[in-house]
Design brief:
globular; 12 helices; 253 residues; binds 2-phosphoglycolic acid; alpha/beta; TIM Barrel
Length: 253
């Protein structure tokens, strides 16, 4: 059985004390409340990784992710944080290729691929993000776009490597807009992604790959999204900044 995962991507929100407070609230709720078998991941800003990592140690269900990592191992890259650095402060996962990285900071599939390779070499689990823009969907190119994101950033990996990757489908038009993909749209793309993995790597790997949905997911729409056979959880942005709301989403798994 593949893992069910709900990950909170805090983006560039919370100062350090606020971040510790939010993480401790989530840990307390996750410890106290009855949750089904789900892996909870918190992705705070780099500056909070170590502190949040210390806090969540008490909760075996809660894991730590970085929101990004550098595309080089080390060296003269001012402002960058490497995969091994985030691993060394306790992160187990790293989000790679988020649409904000692609569209605001110009990351392309080749760069995303390098980051994935480096994070795998370091022993991290990459959470690879893919998704189409509104224009691409409106012109019927969404399958094609997802296909090239998979082909160019992921499909050079070995079977062993791809087995360690979590995929997040995040339609760009749904991120932070309040307009989530419908349950049908999500399932359709998730099925397409799983089928592409199956064609490339075979059924056993495609069956065990967790594919998360992200984009305006909240406690009201999570159930109808998560109940789809190919949706294995969510990557949550805005709604992960409120502990009650985030834990209510986790409960919808
Ligand atoms: P959102 O963001 O939930 O605020 O739409 C999701 C994401 O960017 O991961």
């Amino acid at each position: 059985m593949r893992k069910k995962i709900v990950a909170g991507n805090w983006k560039m929100n919370t100062d350090y004390p606020q971040g510790l407070w939010l993480a401790s609230e989530v840990v307390n709720m996750v410890n106290d409340e009855v949750l089904s078998n789900v892996t909870v991941i918190l992705a705070p800003p780099f500056s909070h990784l170590y502190g949040v990592g210390q806090l969540i140690k008490e909760s075996p269900k809660v894991h730590l992710a970085a929101q990004n990592c550098g595309s080089e191992k080390s060296g003269a890259f001012t402002g960058e944080v490497s995969a091994s650095m985030v691993k060394s402060v306790g992160a187990e996962y790293v989000i790679i290729g988020h649409s904000e990285r692609r569209h605001i900071y110009g990351e392309n599939n080749a760069m995303v691929e390098r980051k994935i390779k480096l994070s795998l070499e370091t022993g991290l689990y990459p959470i690879f993000c893919c998704g189409e823009t509104l224009n691409e969907r409106n012109s019927g190119k969404h399958f094609q776009v997802i296909n090239s994101q998979l082909e160019e950033a992921l499909f050079e990996l070995t079977e062993n490597e791809i087995s360690r990757v979590v995929i997040a489908y995040e339609p760009v038009w749904a991120i932070g807009t309040g307009v989530n993909a419908t349950s049908h749209q999500a399932q359709e793309i998730h099925h397409f992604i799983r089928n592409s993995i199956k064609e490339k790597y075979g059924e056993s790997i495609s069956d065990s790959t967790s594919i998360l949905y992200g984009g305006s997911c909240n406690s009201k729409n999570a159930k109808e999204l998560f109940c789809n056979p190919d949706v294995d959880g969510g990557l949550i942005g805005g709604a992960s900044l409120k502990s009650r709301e985030f834990v209510d989403i986790i409960k919808m798994i």
